[in-house]
Amino acid sequence: MRTAHRVEQVRAAEAALMRRLPDGELMRRAATGLAAVCLELLSPAGVYGAPVVVLAGSGDNGGDALFAGARLAGRGAAVTAVLLSPRRTHPGGLAALRAAGGRVLHAGPDDADVLERVAVPLSRARLVLDGIVGIGGRGGLRPEAARLLPLVEASGATVVAVDLPSGLDADTGRVSGPVLRAHLTVTFGTHKPGLLLSPGAGVAGTVHLVDIGLGPELARLAGGPDGPGGGPALYCLQHADVAAVLPVPGRDTDKYGRGVVGLAAGSERYPGAAVLAVSGAVRSGAGAVRYAGSVADAVLAAHPEVLVHRGGPREAGRVQAWVVGPGLGTGSAGEEALGEVLASDVPVLVDADGLGLLAARGPEPLYRDAPTLFTPHAGEAARLLGVERAAVEAEPLAHALRLADAYGVTVLLKGDRTIITEPAAPGGAEGLGRAQGPGGDGAGAEAGRGGAGDARERRVFVNTTGTGWLATAGSGDVLAGLVGGLLAAGLPVVEAAAVGAYLHGLAGRLAASGAPTTAPDVARALPEAWRQVASTATG
Ligand SMILES: NC(=O)C1=CN([C@@H]2O[C@H](COP(=O)(O)OP(=O)(O)OC[C@H]3O[C@@H](n4cnc5c(N)ncnc54)[C@H](O)[C@@H]3O)[C@@H](O)[C@H]2O)[C@@H](O)CC1
Ligand SMILES: Nc1ncnc2c1ncn2[C@@H]1O[C@H](COP(=O)(O)OP(=O)(O)O)[C@@H](O)[C@H]1O
Ligand SMILES: [K+]
After folding, report:
1. What separation in Å is there between the alpha carbon of 239 and the centre of ligand 1?
2. Domain assignment of residue 244, yes or no
3. Can you tell me which residues bind (6S)-NADPHX (predicted)?
4. How far, in Å, is the centroid of ligand 3 from the Cα of 120?
5. Interface pTM (ipTM) of the complex?
6. Ligand nearest to the CA of 181
7. Are residues 446 and 488 in the same domain?
8. Could you tell me the CA-to-CA distances from 261 to 172, 284, 340, 494 in Å, in that order?
9. What percent of the chain shows pLDDT beyond 90?
10. I want to staple 412 with a disulfide (CB 3.0 to 4.6 A). Which of 84, 285, 347, 375 is the partner?
């Protein structure tokens, strides 16, 4: 499991660790890891004489970059440091760089002809280290740093962000002004949420984590009564985590024991959505799929194994979870089907037109005893919250949390980095918190009145397996069926959502393999995605 922590958690862990270590030890570890990555990047074309530019701001982020630059200079690279606040540069880092033979240019707000001076080293650079600002940054980059961005971009150099791309908000991934786009980010101690979430992930490039010994401190803080506390701000599943929870039938399992998932989907106008949702459900690990609705013939033609009912969900027979919404239509038939499904006592996944129908009613908690999961894309989330789509895209995590609180549901917010979040725990930070588990939807609605946006006591997952090729019509329907089937198979709601997003993203990659793909192909690739994941558990 990869995890990410908020800045206040990182600071508290660093402070605790620093009390036990010699002065400067943490920065030494960070700079050593950073320099090792840079040397690897430079090695193929040779380190000796390689032109490198270090952009150094006024804080410890600049210190990391300067110490790493000193190591590169010590290996023969031609390093130029560009100081954005010459009077406030990290003294130890600057001294080390000078001692190793690095060149220094001043580029502060009061320095004249800065652009002319830095233009030549930047145009020659093979590697640029961005040590302008790290977790101490606020807002987009300041003008004295922002004016260098066009030169860096024009240089064609590989840009390595130190800890995080300068100008990116570490906690949210928000980009609120100029930001230096990186090919690679070398981050220290733990991932920062902004590196994994959109839109930040899009400017961070590949993220490389350097272990500086923070792990045990972060774990101690998570369990302790003082400081920012709480577990990781974000969890990011890996193959082994998914393999550990995939439902596997035992010797005595029958099809009903594996779970039956019901789908209330499709309409004369959108029969394909029902077929696609079913195509995900039949490959989800559930033992059987029931379909209730008006396009049973289309479903049967594509999937003869499905149990169909040509009426409403209430009369369709027993299921362990319902999916409602894909292609359902927003007329009275859709409204009725949604009402029947929500009145059931099993977990319910609401997607597409089901969400449209709920958005029309406005935000209000869904008081259900069983868990409810919403699977909106940004546009649907915006309608459910009554905000602009752009606002959701700029800060998806905050909006996923708001949505979970406003409706008292678990949320899977689709996008290039899909977010899954539980509703707030009852009583906010002091409440039962994560131990509450995924079943507390109704209680979450209570907490939502107080603590919107407080992610401390609930698990939030981000999925990184996707690919832009998944942005193809109907791929969301496949996901809905898949996650519904995982719910029916007995996975807790937040796990079903996170595991479903993981397999769906991987299937998207396998189906696309670098070329356009279709929703049916994504569904067909699900078994291979499952096999690849499962093989990590069996060796
Ligand atoms: N605290 C620690 O123990 C460690 C910190 N490390 C490094 O230290 C960094 C944090 O250092 P600091 O707390 O000094 O903070 P930063 O170096 O991230 O930034 C603070 C400085 O940047 C300036 N600044 C803030 N916003 C800006 C903006 N929008 N545009 C331009 N300049 C801006 C501020 O005036 C301030 O002087 C981490 O990101 C990491 O790189 C690592 O060395 C590991 C150990
Ligand atoms: N740029 C992207 N990178 C990765 N995944 C994406 C991207 N864009 C969309 N997706 C994924 O594709 C799916 C699209 O779902 P959705 O928007 O509901 O489409 P539809 O309504 O056509 O089924 C979601 O799983 C989403 O996370
Ligand atoms: K940086």
Report:
1. 34
2. no
3. 60-64, 134-140, 163, 273, 327, 377, 477
4. 22
5. 0.92
6. 3
7. yes
8. 35, 9, 15, 17
9. 86
10. 375
